[in-house]
Amino acid sequence: MEEKLALIRFNNVGKSYYFSTDLDVHKGDKVVVETVRGLELGELIADLKNIDEFKLDTELKRVKRRANRADLDLYEFNKTKATKSLEICKKIVSQYDLDMRLVNCEYTLDASKVIFMYTSESRVDFRELLKELASVFKCRIELRQIGPRDKSKIVGGLGSCGLPLCCSSFLGEFDGVSINMAKNQMLAINIDKISGACGRLLCCLKYEDDIYTTEKQRFPKIGTRVKYEDKIVKVKGLNVISDLVKIEHDGNVSFVSLNEIKILPPKDHKHEQRGH
Fold this sequence. Notes:
Layout (H helix, E strand, L loop, with lengths): L3 E6 L6 E6 L8 E5 L4 E6 L4 E2 L12 E4 L2 H26 L6 E7 L5 E7 L7 H11 L2 E6 L2 H8 L10 H4 L9 H6 L24 H7 L9 E4 L2 E9 L4 E6 L2 E6 L3 E3 L2 H10 L1
Parallel strand pairs: 8-9
Antiparallel strand pairs: 1-2, 1-4, 1-5, 3-4, 3-6, 7-8, 10-11, 10-14, 11-12, 12-13
Helix pairs in contact: 1-2
């Protein structure tokens, strides 16, 4: 079989990476690959692609084999082992005066390396801790500092919508989220209400941002004047979902349908502003 491109993910909602393979594997298959961390079990999450269709500037690591029963059993054993190792590590960390909170533990498939993930508000000097952990676990140790979003992705929970957190249920990677997205969707800038369990801006602010940007092009800008029932009124707000425009005239405020107003041409708008 000719060389193909395989897209592989290592956790249910983790990042995905490309590897090369000449094996007859298919979407949904479990495979064993060599990564920078060591030997790992991953899942093929898409059909194989022709490698010639992509302009690759780096050499890809290869898929070693399709996972067999021994690999799958070892993976499950390592998950149980990681849970116990995390508790052991927490007890050891408590003996040191270190500002770090352990979140998760993972073993590579061959258990040659154990990765402990932690959060901290500052840089941690864990040189002495590393020595003790190495003597206890008898393998390579990696202490990886993660951010609040990564912590929520690992720990999980429920969002303000009542559903499982997006990051721990289907988001493979975090998209950039800015306060301008909340403003674009005309949300009240209440940081507590537009922040997720991680304390950062809600990932879901990204989902509807593009459609709001597109739909708002049909509406007049807030602060401009439009024509409604032969009167010139001022636009005070919008409801993009319901196609409503909030208008003000002589101190009276009301919502009217977008279809009921006439957006003035730029020159008429300027004339009305000068006349006002």
